[in-house]
Amino acid sequence: MKKTVLPSAIIFFMLSGFLLNGCRQGEKVLPSTGIEVDPGTDVEEGEITGFFLLNEGNMGSNKATLDYYDYETGIYHRNIYAERNPGVVKELGDVGNDIQIYRDKLYAVINCSHFVEVMDLATLKHITQISIPNCRYITFKDDYAYVSSYAGPVKLDPNARLGYVARVDLNTLQVKDTCVVGYQPDELVISGDKLYVANSGGYRFPDYDYTVSVINLKTFKEIKKIDVAINLHRLELDHNGNLWVSSRGDYYDIPSKTFVIDTETDTVTDTLHLVPNSNMTLYRDSLYIYSTEWSWYTESNTVTYAIVDTDTKKVVTRNLITDGTDTDITVPYGIAVNPDTGEFFVTDAKDYVTPGKLHCYGPDGVRKWSVTTGDIPAHIAFTRTKLRPLEEIEEQ
Amino acid sequence: MKAKSLIYALFVLLAPVVPVSGSANLRFAEPTPAQSADSVHNIEQIVVSAQRTKISVIPPQTMQGAQLQQLSVHSVADALRYFSGVQIKDYGGIGGLKTVNIRSLGSQHVGVFYDGIQIGNAQNGVVDLGRFSLDNMEVVSLYNGQKSDVIQTAKDFASANAIYLRTREPAFDGDKKDNLRTQLKVGSFATINPSILWEHRLSDSISSSVSTEFMYTNGKYKFSYAKKDGYDTTEVRQNGDVRQFRAEAGLFGRIRDGKWQAKLYYYNSERGYPGASVREEPGKFRHQDRQWDDNFFAQASFQKRLSPLYRFMLNGKYAYDYLHYLSDPRLDVTTMYVNNRYYQQELYFSTANQFTFTDWWSANLAGDVQWNKLDADLRDFAYPRRLTALGALATSIQLPWLDMQANVLYTYVHDNTAGASSAAKDRHEWTPAVVASFKPLRRHKLYINAFYKRIFRMPTLNDNYYTFIGNINLKPEYTTQYDLGVSYDKEFATGFVRNTGVKLDAYYNQVEDKIVAMPTDNQFRWTMINLGYVEIRGMDFSGWTHMTAGEWNITARLTYTYQKAQDFTDPSSEFYGGQIPYIPWHSGSLILGAEYRGWELNYSFIYTGERYESVANIPENYAQPWYTHDMSISKRLRIKESSLRLTAEINNIFNQQYEVVQCYPMPGTNFKFIITFEL
């Protein structure tokens, strides 16, 4: 009798374990959450109906997510990709670095998943992914997309690895050609038949790159490297044909600055020494800029904002946010202006490992609403195509 | 890539530079006060260590000798999962990084001692316990607060929690001069693990021990991710191969009123980093980053009683650790080139002095000096050197009904750096601890235990000086612990149940000035800052029993841990008061073992309840509970003077697909066969 106690106990526990296993809930596809942040407004045909916000997600966490704001309902929908694409393995991927709309599609550059995710703009249904290792930013012209990548060919010295720009045929959604540029190229912009890409060299400290590469789109060859300043990152093209360039500096003695390149002559015409620049966006003739600089004295980030007039190249104001609510922002990480209304958005990445915030401000700089986003809210794309509700798609 | 890559590099490169050692030899007996010695048949293995006088006011959780042998575990980290209050961070696979977090204070607050001397890692302060196999291990003990022996080094007082690993000391039956043990383990993931242990008696008072071990695994295992009504995918873990070699030699001597020990240790390994399992086009890119390690140390210990009043102990150590990390875009197009080498050296010397004033009152005065040096081929590296001096004064009272120790620890830290980089300023810290055990009933082994301890961890050399990330202005990270517990153990001379007991502890901990990585102006740039305040309220329970019936020996052990570990850093945060990442509210384990005429059957179960991967306790960060069932059966055969033992193990019987750390899938069902020959 006693001899059977232990074997019975083991069988009992294994059985209960088996039952427990049975009870372990199958993980569900996470549904989106909708939060009403505004009463909503009427949207006329052709006007902006909403925007997509790409949350980067911390590297290695596979937590890039997409949010959507609907102007008509005033509802902010968090994490909408997974529920619309339950069959896509491991959701959107790891580190979303750029998002852009072109024609009827939405393109998300997923840096550490090494592809550009292509989605239908009206339904957000996954169409395909375009494989580009270590891809960073995307821009479009005619039937092509251009994507910057750090992963250029490795020559003799593996540490001196140039990046490239990939040219993607939008009819086949395949990479057609690549053009080698500088070290660790980031944002790219097209002016006429020329593509400009900012080379950072961020991995080559202290030998940062300091050039903007110019590619002739007819030949898809690099025709020039314009010397600007170290560690370049962002580009914005204004209506006067001037290209605005941000330099991150070296985090020690060389501060972040803003530069202007004349795209007629492809030379640097202006240096804005007192406009540190982490990120910028163009609205009409105004450049909205924020900067985050770490200070060892205060052991905190020093955040500054500015609006620069692109005609006069002068700072119009340093107070982007006028109601004092800028103190609520820990680490500004994204900036965007609604081109129809002039209301603008600043995201806050906070500590990078918990959900961030999106703040909406009126053109007067007074905060209208705030909402919690995914982790590291960063990139915003405004859409004039209304995103169809999930129920509507599922019925089909 | 981005800044996270730096943080990732930080994690990877800094990945614990620590040795390994062999494999299984424990069994589970909760050592109650006075160490309820393992009562079952391998008495000869235990005899050396058992029946020592009480070595701590509050006894540790311990596994020893044959106890561990029956558990299906590869490493010390695997064994520690069966202790209460412990959470293991496991990145998967046999060679994966495994760090231990005790009572949610953080893995850098765990001191790991190898044969009495601390294993250092000045670079990142964490010891990878996944690298210590149990091959030649005699005892694994876990102390909350501190060990409170009447004589011990200042370092023994200097961490918030401590794990003591004691390797086997040679012991010989009759006039045997040699013990030889060879073992071969083979298992899933192409794992092969041969080892040899040879013990030799040189004279009546001196013996030697040589132990060596090799292990290889290809680390390839299937794992699945599935969503209800969604995707369902099965992939194979890649680049998780590990090759490691360990060699160890020791001399053990006994002298009148004392003993000494000297030890050489060498560990060499090469491993791949399988990395986070994130969305990628399956099979498109090869992940090829690798790490090579060399660890060497030599240590010696000497103790002697000079008079009834005075006893002293000397300890010394030299350690060299080399780490090489390579990520090469020629092998993996997605990666950026990283090729770094780190060299650490440590010198340590300690003297401890015990003064016994009366039969119930003694004092301990200990002084330790440690020097660390870290070199690396990084750009603008600071080449830090750190001198640490510790002084401890403790006094102990041992009465039949009360056992108590109080101490104060002084720590001085002085850093130097090379070139233009500046060093952190000197630190002088004073920290106290009080440990007490009260025995209200003379005839019953009922104890009421309590301790209070305040201790800190210094910022590691990485925290202070890692190029770009380090911050020399960091303050030490302080912990305060309050613990109240009760334990009861009863032995029976006859009957079915021979021994049974329970231990229950409730505690409240605080972590102040927690050192966290903080993003600066962009993702390329993180830094370390003192930001963080955590409060932990917890309860540890363990219960054990040993039963006999005829030739059957049955043992059972159950643990349960409750922890509420909340982040109270930023009152303005939406997630203020959230449970800190990876700490489950509920966790526990169960072990059942039976022996019958040389047959042994063992079953073990581990449960880790729901938890979150971030302090933001929201569905996006929810981590499912996981629980695994392991089982082993073995048979011991006697062939004249020698013995042969055959073991078969099956682990994760129900093939549960789970993650301990986000994006690091764990293996499903796997098998192992062990053959051990002893002469």
* Unreliable runs of chain B: 1-53
* N-end to C-end Cα span of chain A: 64 Å
Query: Separation of termini of chain B?
Result: 55 Å
- Name of the CATH class of chain B: Mainly Beta
How large, in whole angstroms, is the Cα Rg of chain A? 24 Å
Number of domains of chain B: 1
Give the overall form of chain A. globular
Instruction: Please summarize the sheet with the most strands of chain A.
Output: 5 strands, antiparallel
Main structural class of chain B:
mainly beta
Task: Give the proportion of residues in helices of chain B.
Answer: under 10%
Count the helices of chain A. How many?
3
Textual characterization of the structure:
Chain A is mostly beta strands. Chain A has helices spanning 5-23, 81-84, 390-395; strands spanning 33-36, 50-55, 65-70, 75-78, 96-102, 105-110, 115-120, 126-131, 135-141, 144-149, 162-169, 174-183, 185-191, 194-199, 211-216, 221-227, 232-237, 242-247, 257-262, 267-272, 279-283, 286-295, 300-309, 314-317, 332-337, 344-348, 355-361, 367-375, 377-383. Chain A has a 5-stranded antiparallel sheet, with no helix packed on it. The termini of chain A are far apart. The mean pLDDT of chain A is 91. With 679 residues, chain B is mainly β. Chain B has a single domain, classed as TonB-dependent receptor, beta-barrel domain (Maltoporin, Chain A). Chain B is built from 5 helices and 40 strands. Chain B has a 22-stranded antiparallel beta barrel. A 6-stranded mixed sheet of chain B has the order 2-3-9-10-6-7. In chain B, strands 1-8 form a two-stranded parallel ribbon. In chain B, a hairpin with a 3-residue loop joins strand 11 and strand 12. In chain B, 54% of the residues are buried. Classes of the chains: A mainly beta (396), B mainly beta (679). The interface between A and B is large, with 82 and 82 residues.
